[in-house]
Design a protein that fits this description.
heterotetramer; A mainly alpha (334); B alpha/beta (341); C alpha+beta (635); D mainly alpha (285); A: 334 residues; mainly alpha; C: 635 residues; alpha+beta; 28 strands; 17% strand; globular
Chain lengths: 334, 341, 635, 285
């Protein structure tokens, strides 16, 4: 227990160090970006109206003050940490004065709902198919599905999404291609709304599944085909243990361990959003928010999303590290 | 057919439990340029009697491991049986390993168990030991869960293991304990036949002695037969009733252990025995020249001839058959001459 | 087994999906009472304060449908018809030296919460913004306004700090303008900068109905008292459009699909190819600005090749002219717009009143204009480019392309400069350049190469134009690479961090000959040294005394004075001579309308409103639309 | 080496198919050096021509031959992808093996950096770096940036392999035999790590190409340089899919898929060849 406590302290320290380094790096890169939120706002305000040059100067300095962008980078860095510790990323610069946090919180349920579901489907299906394909190497159906997955794997997400959009939005227009739910529908636990959510989520989720399944499939198949030559599997076969038991308890169970780490990491990454898919299907999630933030030079928002993402990945890695001994009896902490 | 079996059951004691006839098992590879066949098991015939420990000896890559895997029906392509048969006789029922696969599968562990090479790693690392017993043996025993557990525990105690190991994970046990456990697993169903492939190789000498005693003890209690493979002649001396010497995929000599050790008939056997350390023996060991042959391209005639101190021209061209001589069998044109050497 | 399950799941999804067609596209709102307009995704979906920074920047209908101010100019209109008195009863009245502007307001106009609109609202709008420097129109009010007086409830008097004959343009909507604030609402608010104005009080015919917190749509509904608005007072019967839906319809491909599925009535912009697809596959249910090719609606902006005059050798007008003469405008038109471009040789957009005020009267001058190449003089203008482009697109469009030159000029522009490589070479030699093999060397002996900046994704047609011009220059020995600036485009242009770029630096009223909209900012007083940020519009940092004189003269002339056109021509002639940037064409937008539910959209033949959904005067289109009697019945 | 290749070709059908596919696409991509027109030239051919005898894969809306565009695009994309893959493999191997073998403080230090990099979200960081670099952002810089973001997960994998090798018999032998740390890592451990490298390289390559396409789709690409992402970018700008110019996108995607199938088959057959374990089981003990 003493060893465990020591380990926990060390691991905790590392956890915070990772977050500190990651967020600092993100702050640095974001602040080096030449996209200036003040200029973006000024050009938004002046690009369509007849604005005389003297006013623009005035507008610029007023905005700098309003956005709190005065002071050195170090000042901003320190005040940034101060706010982060309070769970506040300050006001968004492109949606001033709405707090970044409320923008993220508005987008997060969409992203988490869509991505978590898609990830779980992808992970389960990819691992199941991959494990079966690795174990029953001569099965024709599995070979075919393997070939299909392999062929799909290198196709870019954007293309898969676009093809789905075209197929189910135009050629056979049965699914909505844009947005998160039907327009003017009251959100709530009503059949109508949930059905609408599912319908709107189908194409983006399908895109994510088709895009993501390949790497799980391939890594699982490779893990399994290594494990089937392990002594304990060969021995179980010689021992006449029935093959479904060998598959589930001797092969898949061992192969799943590294995949769980991958799952945890991917779950952590959910907070970063699925940029291309959200962008393509107009899904109101974090990925779309992030891209808008980048385009508009809203580095409060970009930093907010990035920080959330860093923290969630670090937490996921941390949790899986702590849970690992429960999943894999060989690993002991300390 | 069934009637014939019934008829023979009277003479069950006399019947061998394992009969290997003209067995040829080759690695047939078209991979990586090694397109030739590797004749890992080349025309081997042997029988093993009830209640007998049969040792198979030979250098590494002599094909002894392939032979025992082929006997166990544990081969996967590219190793294939080309000719011959492996037949067990369990309680009077003849079982052809390669012709009756489903029956063979059902017989595993009930009648035939296996102690594998590197058997320290044969237990599933992520499951507790008790699951292994359950998976392997439960269905053969016809017991309730509780009875089964009690049986396993008493069995473990008998072989000197604390039943609490059942609740452990394999990595929590020492190498010796794991080995014992494997033997326990292999013997829990009290099978008629046990195949043991280098079960003691990775153990240190003290544990090795311990394990050998255990195997022997279990065998004697159950009256099982064991086919036992190791390159270590001292192990054979300690445990085997009969031994067979394998060289380059062929059985070159076979006989009662004592006879083979005292009067080896094949020059290769003689070499193996001569190279054993003996107390008080100060003679210099003479190393055998050359390397074990490449099984993909074996020498003509007697495969041992390039290394044989007694080789004559005939050895290079004609392959000697394994023929009875004295108390055993030997395959050598100059069989017996080695005794004088 | 698994595959069976998968197939079953797919069927289940399909079964759930089938009823989509049978369902209202918008829950609870009859499709045939709603006009669906393309809007962008709103980041700040719950924010309806138009006066805070960035307020109104999202095209969600807020400023398009609820805000109002004194006057409007229809960018497509000509002459008096282009002018609308909205909240003002009449045109602005200035005193002689343009230091006081008096405005009479209309009566009987009410905010949507029932409070009457008065002169106090106007005064409050100006005073409040001056008091809060972060607000949208705070800066121009601070610069211009000394005080605002309200002698009676229908009159506002602005006392200006200095003479300004264009002060009223702050309250004149082209795209937007200083919208009037509801005094009775903002008075109760602590900080007008952080007030979300949710729900917004409307001063125009539509009012907020509902919106998506995720920013994908906003629905506006016709006010019950629509008559008590400036737009309603001009109508004889209630508008057919009961609901206006601004929805984010996704990327250009999704927009085309949605319109062909009749889920999007008004598209803001798509690529020419998307437009052609709609014209090919959905011709029966769509309307366009032109009835056939080139379809597009020209915005009053002027995409040009911009040069940074503070970077050598672009300060030399001979170099700029040489680069202009190296361009084969026909390829540029074909490559950027598939020929559907409205070409411009003059430095003002060829739209609205500019055609009759400037382009047509100046044709003769252009035809006779001479350029001295150093060795000879040439007449570079080619008035037949419209016919040439017509010949290029005829194979694809056949009978849609008329043969009457006048009609062709309306479609493809009046004319442009002939590609003249020999003259271009002479001009470069005149500027001290030498040619080594197929590579031009600058006077200092280094190779002449150009980085041509384009925006890229948001304005794809200009990126396309850029790659063609780059290729033409490269082929003539000036290695040109295209540099995509993306979101940094505006800043790099403003900061002078570019050599050459494709963008616009000229925008006009469209419906009025006055050029002060952009020209005011071209005065040399506002030019910043290299490295500092230039205020909007004079992005090339062109500096010329003659230009300053024109600008100064324009300041002292009234908005509707005939002299305005004369000064405009002086500017245009100067711009031809100096070629500070190479004007290419109008910014053509492909904005097809779905006629399944609505008819009576504006067009080149009946340009009663602008067609872009982010232009505020779209409201004049919305109230004019008629329900299509053949529309599918509501469910 | 040559003999191994010949034997692999002769006796391993998977290797043969993979080899032929990869070689064919490599030669096809190589052919762009002999293209009849520069790959940046536009409007030299009639636009929007469907595939025909004259233009096998049709022409783009920009008047380019899809065949030659693809040829250049595959070359450039693979150059980018392979650069990312090789660079990131180097990082991953170095960090993973050193961390796994040395353990202790070094391990903690390297894994902290590693975990930090894992936690950084790729797309925003890449886009921000793109903004910072602006027109200095050439493809090698982009490749380096991507490589810096793409090694960390695999480094952890390699670390765990090395960790398990550290306590093996042969490592102890090597230590007693006086081998230096780099020698042990390179000679003794690398062969075991190689399969991991091969297997992750495929995924990394796909990731890198996906990244290139993503950046292009979002409008952050060097549009002067034909790449797979660049082709998609331009096809998008011309709404090619909706306009029915499917050959502009379909052929490059098919080529990429074939290339990856080829690479995958190569990888699994070579993997079998170099994996000490699977070779062992094949040869028999």
């Amino acid at each position: 227990m003493d060893g465990f406590a020591k380990y926990l302290v060390r691991r905790f320290f590392q956890f915070f160090l990772v977050i500190f380094l990651g967020v600092s790096l993100a702050f640095l890169i974001t602040n080096l970006s030449p996209v200036d939120p003040v200029e973006q706002s000024v050009s938004l305000m002046t690009s369509f109206g007849a604005t005389d040059p003297r006013s623009v100067e005035l507008m610029r300095s007023a905005l700098e003050e309003l956005y709190g962008l005065q002071g050195t980078m170090l000042d901003q860095y320190l005040s940034f940490w101060g706010r982060v510790l309070r769970g506040d990323f300050g006001p968004s610069l492109s949606a001033f004065p709405t707090p970044v946090m409320s923008l993220i919180m508005g987008a997060l349920p969409w992203t988490i709902g869509l991505l978590t579901l898609a990830l779980i489907i992808t992970w389960s299906l990819g691992n199941l198919l991959g494990a079966l394909a690795g174990y029953y190497r001569s099965n024709v159906l599995l070979k075919l599905s393997g070939a299909a997955v392999m062929a799909l794997h290198p196709v870019p997400a954007y293309i898969i999404g676009l093809v789905l959009l075209l197929a189910f939005g135009f050629i056979w227009p049965v699914l909505p291609i844009s947005g998160g739910a039907q327009m003017n529908l009251q959100p709530g636990f009503t059949f109508e709304y949930i059905r609408s959510l599912i319908l709107h989520g189908t194409l983006p989720a399908l895109t994510l599944v088709l895009v993501g399944i390949g790497s799980w499939f391939i890594s699982m198949r490779s893990l399994v085909s290594n494990i089937v030559t392990d002594d304990h599997v060969v021995y179980a076969e010689l021992g006449g243990v029935n093959s479904s038991k060998i598959f589930s308890q001797y092969v898949a169970r061992n192969a799943l361990l590294p995949q769980l780490t991958g799952l945890a990491l991917s779950l952590g990454n959910v907070f970063g959003g699925a940029v291309i898919t959200e962008f393509l299907f107009n899904y109101p999630g974090v990925g779309r928010l992030l891209i808008q933030g980048i385009y508009r030079g809203d580095y409060s928002l970009v930093l907010g999303v990035t920080t959330m993402s860093i923290i969630s990945v670090a937490v996921a890695v941390f949790i899986i590290d702590l849970l690992y001994p429960l999943i894999d009896p060989r690993v002991r902490l300390g | 057919m069934l009637a014939a079996v019934e008829n023979k059951s009277a003479s069950v004691e006399a019947k061998p439990v394992l009969r290997v006839e003209g067995l040829k098992a080759y690695y047939q590879m078209n991979y990586f340029g090694v397109r030739r066949e590797v004749r890992a098991v080349d025309d081997v015939s042997l029988t093993i009697k009830r209640n007998e420990i049969y040792g198979i000896a030979g250098e590494s890559s002599s094909g002894k491991s392939s032979l025992i895997k082929t006997i166990a029906g544990a081969i996967t392509p590219p190793l294939r049986v080309v000719e011959g048969s492996v037949k067990f006789d369990f309680g009077g029922k003849e079982l052809d390993v390669y012709a009756q696969r489903p029956a063979m599968k059902a017989a595993r562990w009930k009648h035939l168990s296996y102690v594998m090479q590197g058997s320290m790693n044969v237990l599933n690392p992520v499951r507790k030991v008790k699951h292994a017993f359950h998976d392997f043996a439960f269905k053969h025993m016809g017991l309730s869960e509780g009875e089964f557990r009690a049986r396993v525990e008493s069995h473990l105690q008998r072989i000197g293991l604390d039943p609490r190991v059942l609740e452990s994970y394999p990595h929590q046990l020492s190498g010796g304990m794991r080995q014992r456990l494997t033997i326990g697993l292999a013997t829990v169903c009290e099978p008629e036949f046990i195949i043991a492939d280098e079960p003691t190789t990775a153990l240190d000498v003290l544990v090795q002695q311990d394990v050998l005693a255990l195997i022997k003890g279990v065998q004697q209690r159950m009256g099982s037969s064991i086919i036992f493979v190791t390159h270590d002649m001292t192990v054979h001396a300690a445990i085997a009733d009969r031994i067979g010497i394998v060289y380059a995929g062929r059985l070159v000599e076979e006989g009662p252990t004592l006879d083979v050790f005292q009067r080896p008939q094949h020059p290769y056997t003689a070499h193996l025995i001569a190279s054993l350390p003996r107390i008080g023996d100060t003679r210099k060991r003479v190393a055998l020249g050359g390397k074990p042959p490449n099984l993909a391209d074996p020498p003509s005639g007697c495969r041992f001839h390039p290394r044989c101190p007694l080789a004559v021209d005939k050895c290079k061209s004609e392959n000697p058959a394994l023929l009875p001589r004295n108390s055993g069998r030997v395959a050598c044109w100059r069989a017996g001459e080695v005794e004088a050497a | 087994m698994l595959f069976k399950k998968l197939a079953a799941a797919a069927l289940a999804i399909a079964a759930m999906a089938m009823p989509v067609a049978a369902q209202d596209f918008i829950a609870g709102i009859p499709r045939n009472e709603a006009l669906i307009i393309q809007g962008p995704a709103a980041q700040n979906a719950e924010w309806f304060n138009l006066w805070a920074p960035g307020g109104g920047a999202t095209t969600n209908g807020n400023q398009q449908l609820t805000a109002d101010t004194l006057w409007w100019i229809n960018p497509e209109g000509t002459g008096d018809a282009a002018w609308t008195n909205a909240l003002a009863a009449d045109k602005p009245v200035y005193n002689d030296d343009f230091t006081v502007m008096t405005v009479k307001l209309k009566e009987g106009i009410f905010w949507s919460d029932g409070v009457e609109f008065t002169a106090d609202d106007v005064k409050y709008t100006v005073d409040t913004q001056i008091a809060h420097p972060g607000m949208g129109w705070s800066a121009p009010f601070t610069v211009n306004v000394e005080s605002v007086e309200v002698p009676d409830r229908n009159t506002v008097v602005f006392n200006l700090k200095a003479p300004n004959s264009r002060f009223h343009t702050l309250f004149t909507v082209r795209w937007n303008a200083a919208w009037i604030m509801p005094k009775h609402v903002f008075e109760t608010v602590d900080d007008p900068l952080t007030y979300a104005a949710n729900p917004p009080v409307s001063l125009s015919a539509y009012v907020l109905h509902s919106y998506d917190t995720a920013g994908n749509w906003v629905i506006w509904k016709l006010r019950d008292d629509w008559q008590r608005t400036s737009i309603g007072q001009g109508l004889t019967e209630a508008p057919d459009v009961k609901y206006v839906v601004y929805r984010n319809a996704g990327n250009p491909d999704a927009r085309v699909i949605e319109q062909m599925n009749h889920n999007l009535d008004v598209i803001n912009d798509i690529a020419p190819e998307g437009m052609f697809t709609i014209a090919r596959d959905a011709a029966d249910s769509t309307a366009y600005w032109f009835p056939g090719f080139p379809f597009a609606h020209p915005d009053p902006t002027l995409p040009s090749v911009l040069f940074n005059h503070q970077v050598e050798p672009f300060s030399n007008k001979d170099v700029r002219w040489a680069l202009a003469l190296m361009i084969d405008i026909r390829s540029v038109a074909m490559g950027s717009y598939r020929g559907a471009a409205n070409l411009a040789a003059l430095s003002t957009p060829p739209t609205g009143s500019a055609i009759t005020d400037y382009y047509q009267p100046m044709q003769e001058w252009l035809t006779n204009y001479e350029v001295n190449t150093g060795t000879r003089t040439i007449k570079p203008y080619d008035p037949t480019t419209a016919e040439q482009i017509a010949a290029l697109v005829k194979p694809q469009w056949g009978d849609q392309i008329p043969s009457d030159p006048t009609q062709l000029k309306a479609m493809f522009g009046e004319g442009w400069w002939k590609q003249d490589l020999a003259a271009a070479a002479e001009l470069l030699q005149k500027a001290g350049f030498t040619k080594n093999g197929n590579q031009w060397l600058k006077p200092d002996g280094t190779p002449f190469t150009i980085k041509l900046m384009v925006e890229g994704d948001a304005i794809p047609t200009l990126a396309r134009a850029g790659t063609i011009i780059a290729q033409q220059w490269s082929m003539e020995g000036i290695q040109t690479t295209v540099d995509v600036a993306g979101p940094t485009n505006g800043q790099r242009l403003g900061g002078g961090d570019y050599e050459a770029a494709i963008y616009w630096t000229v925008e006009t009223w469209g419906g009025h000959p006055d050029l002060s909209f952009f020209l005011e900012s071209y005065h040399s007083d506002f030019i910043k040294p290299k490295g500092e940020v230039q205020p909007p519009r004079n992005l090339t940092r062109w500096q010329d005394e003659r230009l300053d004189q024109i600008i100064e003269a324009n300041r002292t002339v009234g908005f509707d004075d005939p002299k305005v056109v004369e000064l405009g021509m002086d500017y245009l002639k100067l711009a031809v001579e100096e070629m500070p940037f190479i004007p290419l064409m109008a910014y053509n937008k492909f904005a097809p309308f779905d006629t399944t539910y609505w008819t009576g959209y504006p067009s080149a033949a009946n340009p009663y409103a602008a067609s872009g959904p982010n232009w505020s005067n779209l409201r004049y289109m919305i109230v004019a639309l008629e329900a299509n009697p053949n529309a599918p019945a509501a469910q | 080496m040559f003999k191994i290749l010949r034997d692999l070709l002769r006796y391993n059908i998977e290797f043969t198919i993979g080899f032929i596919l990869t070689l064919a696409i490599f030669l096809f991509a190589l052919a762009h050096f002999w293209a009849p027109m520069p790959d940046t030239a536009i409007y030299l051919l009639p636009p929007d021509m469907p595939p025909s005898a004259e233009y096998w894969f049709g022409t783009t809306s920009r008047g380019q031959d899809v065949l030659w565009q693809m040829s250049s695009a595959i070359w450039n994309t693979m150059l980018f992808g392979l650069s990312v893959t090789i660079l990131s493999r180097l990082f991953a191997v170095a960090v993973g093996m050193i961390s796994g073998y040395l353990g202790g403080k070094w391990d903690e230090f390297l894994m902290t950096i590693n975990d930090t990099m894992i936690a950084l979200p790729n797309i925003p960081i890449l886009l921000l770096v793109y903004f910072v670099m602006r027109d200095q952002m050439s493809w090698p810089v982009l490749a380096l940036t991507a490589a810096l973001l793409g090694w960390n997960y695999d480094a952890r994998l390699i670390r765990s392999v090395t960790l398990s090798l550290r306590n093996r018999e042969f490592t102890r032998h090597a230590v007693f035999a006086g081998m230096s740390v780099p020698q042990i890592l390179v000679r003794q451990h690398l062969p075991y790590v190689m399969p991991v490298i091969f297997f992750t390289a495929m995924n990394n390559l796909i990731w890198a190409i996906g990244l290139e396409v993503t950046l292009s789709v979002l409008g952050f690409s060097d549009i002067n340089r034909p790449t797979i992402g660049g082709m998609i970018y331009w096809a998008n700008q011309h709404q090619a899919i909706i306009a029915g110019i499917w050959w502009w996108i379909a052929f490059p995607i098919i080529a990429v898929v074939l290339l990856f199938l080829g690479l995958f088959l190569l990888a699994i057959s070579v993997n079998e060849y170099i994996d000490p374990r699977s070779r062992l089981s094949r040869m028999g003990a």
